[in-house]
Design a protein that fits this description.
The structure holds two protein chains of two kinds. By secondary structure, chain A is mainly alpha-helical. Chain A has a domain of 216 residues. Chain A is built from eleven helices and four strands, in the order H-H-H-H-E-E-E-H-H-H-H-E-H-H-H. Chain B has a domain of 244 residues. Chain B has a two-stranded antiparallel ribbon. In chain B, helix 3 packs antiparallel against helix 6 and helix 13 runs antiparallel to helix 14. Chain B is globular, with a radius of gyration of 21 Å. The C terminus of chain B is likely disordered. Classes of the chains: A mainly alpha, B mainly alpha.
Chain lengths: 310, 354
Amino acid sequence: MSHVQALIDAVGLGAVYALIAVGIGLVFGVLRLINFAYGQLIMIAAYMLVFTQGWGNVAAIVIALGTAVLAVLVMERVAFRPLRTASPATMLVATFAISYLLQNVALLRYTYRNRPVGDSVGVLGQLNRAATIGSLHVRWVTFLAIGVTAVALGGLTLLLNRTEIGLQMRAAAADFRTARMLGVRANRVVMTAVAISGVLAGLAAVILSIQTPQVTNTTGLNETIFVLVGVVVGGMNRLLSATLGGFMIGFVTSFLGYELATQGSRSQTAIPFTSGVYLPSVIFVLVILVLVLRPAGLFTRRGQAAVERV
Amino acid sequence: MSRRVGESLELLGPIALVTVFAVIASLTANASDDVRFRATIVYVAIVVALYVFVGNSGVLSFGQMSFVAVGAFASGLMTVPTDVKPGVMPSLFPFIRDHSISNAWSLVLAAALGGVYALLVGPALMRLTGLAAGIATFAVLGITYNILTYWTRIGPGAQTLDLIPVTTGYLQATVGAVAVIVAAYAYQRSRWGRQLRATRDDPAAAQATGIDVHRQRLWAFVLSGALCGFAGGLLAHLPPGSLSTNDVYLDLTFLALAMLVVGGVHSLYGAVLGALGISLVNVLLQNAEASVHVFGWKITLPDGSAVIGIALIMLVALLLRPSGITGGREFALPRRLRPPTAAPEPPAAAQEGV
């Protein structure tokens, strides 16, 4: 592997994280709610890919996306809507509870019959092979990730800027109360935003399950945690800065991971931060540094106040 | 006079709750419940320690379990007998490998390390509010977990730390939890605690009266860190005397936060009630996994359904009482049991600033 190879892979991971970041950022913009259970939407969609194996790729993906949308709409109706006026801490802990609940429901699949944890998934498995360009080996799924993210972001930008519901969503994100007073129908806007986040979760699930053709009850969990960190580092008060933050953390994680793995110490008792296993620590130290220097986010304009929501 | 009674009840109520629970549990529990009941009392200590920062400052922290982790591993590691330590963990630093301390000193060490660690990371973190603070504290947890999991010079690394002496019995757990409750109460009644609560309720007004928000937050963070470390020490010495880094990571963070939020973030009573309540439901559900008799019906739940039940109950509790079971109020007797008062008391909500 060369540095160029590492860069391409880093862009690939960044693209998936950006996709997840948009889903989280969109809902946050309208509801001021951090949906920690977003990872479980990805998990649900990934399981649908498992259950629909043999039905053909198109059917499997459509069902997976549809189920993710359905699941997030149920979440919205059952938990987000009653808690819309609750404190941010309450909302966040409620989504913890949902996340925890869904993870453990999925785990029942294995504990109930004492099976080993994990299902293999084979949708579009041929994309996991590498294309060789000179000395570079790039998996097709990396191109897919970049392409899907570009198309999804482009489509979303058009939706937000060229349609009425998009305008209403932007108005609701800017000032929910005023938007309602001006005739924006809150439930409709919220449900649209939430449904789009479900579609994006489904797309992320497809890409993730091509990259790692194994679905478990923790599929999507780590990605969501990292993206949550990324969107806050990027700046949560604008969708663009949140998305860039998500991309950034994926990119940096992948690239630093490669550098640490190849250049770092291989000693079993290496001091922290010098070996590949300390990658999360390195990332988190960077996160703390950025947050202390730019609390409102890396990609926000200077002078914008931090969102004091949680 | 009656107000003083009411105020002392705010401390005595939670203490009585924990003590009564401990006494009943120690007299009635069978072997498997016994372990869980002792853990319940330690959870009370952890949640109250978390409350000292989160409840008083209003800033959500996902990082407090770092201090629990540091306390638990320090206390556990330093009480493993020296004759087995070099064999199990050969790459430890010599001063850890070749020394052991008593149970009591290990708890002191745990509290001290928790406090020092919080003091080290606190000044940077306390500059932040809102989401940035939440994520930065989470980053501290991530770093702590990562280093504890891989650096075998300071701990067992990815392996489980075994052979920790099981010294957290009912007495130690209860005395420990009560000590944490007393410290939390003393703090929230103190000048600094009140200043911090003022910044929570109205940051601008508090700053206008000359309160240094960062300094007050830092004190609470350090006190919470020390108490978390101490509670971690209690946790390490629970049966079966083994500890892994995953025991003090995400699951415990979410569980402790959920207990606090379900009980009511803004009151000491809420922290105690949330920890006891959710733990008790958990014990009940875990027993149901091994089949339980309810009104003559034998119910057996599949393995893993206890966690699902807990998650559901948390969700329902939050939907029904978004500001927690206590709604942020401190312990008080039911109105009809209170001694008659000359002047009407201000409502608890106004006193405690919900």
